[in-house]
Amino acid sequence: MKKIILIVFFLINFFHFNLLFSQNKSKPTYVIVHGAWGGGWAFKKVDSLLTDSGFNVYRPTLTGQGERAHLASKDVGLYTHIKDVINTIFYENIENIILIGHSYGGMVVTGVADAIPERITKLIYLDAYVPDDNESLLSIRNRNNRKTLKIKNGFIIPDWVPKYKSPPKDVPQSYKTWTDTLHLKNPKRLKIPTMYILTVKKDSNYKNDDFASQAIRANKKGWPIFQLEADHNPQWSAPFKLVGMLKEIGQ
Hints:
The termini are far apart. This protein is an alpha/beta fold. The chain has a single domain (27-249), classed as Rossmann fold (3-Layer(aba) Sandwich), CATH 3.40.50. The strands form two sheets. A six-stranded parallel sheet has the order 2-1-3-4-8-9, sandwiched between helices. It has helices spanning 2-26, 44-52, 78-91, 105-115, 137-142, 176-179, 212-220, 234-237, 239-249, and strands at 29-33, 56-58, 97-102, 120-126, 151-152, 155-156, 173-174, 194-200, 225-229. It contains nine helices and nine strands. 35% of the residues are buried.
């Protein structure tokens, strides 16, 4: 009798484990690419909320940024950052990816999707730049007459950061990452289901938003557009709303 009970107990646990394993295996993995001057640290709360919901999350920090600031060099370019993400995907052996690019990260994820579209299930631009072939971030930005950049010794300086602020903090970023031209060659990238999230501050007109022009670009490409009430950094100002939207459109 005891043997029968033990066998039944074993079978129940075995099937329960396999059910959980198959569920987790079928869930996509979120790979989040941060914006200019930032780092993976900026999405720590978003990572935690998605992980609590049973998702695997990666938030690679781009070379020269965040905890990798010691690798900063004016020779670091856009394709360095694209390779950062590609290598994270390869070395962690990640597939079935929901790839998210925030702000400058839109440039990076576009290059990643062009290189390895077979790994990506969905592509999400989060208040991000939407580049076309032969464009740089600077060329896109200049069309919208944004404020002057502070450039020193080949780096764009985040002048809103107090001089002696302790980490985590935004750090200078190589100007080359903004001037490098993106060359898009793979038509398979265009088959990836792609969405755009435009963040708009409360009581503000979305037409006046800094990234409204990028949402218009996305709309012309036929991508679904979602609007989130938050500032440009929803990972801090509205993490719960952001995660809820990511989970909803990621299904």
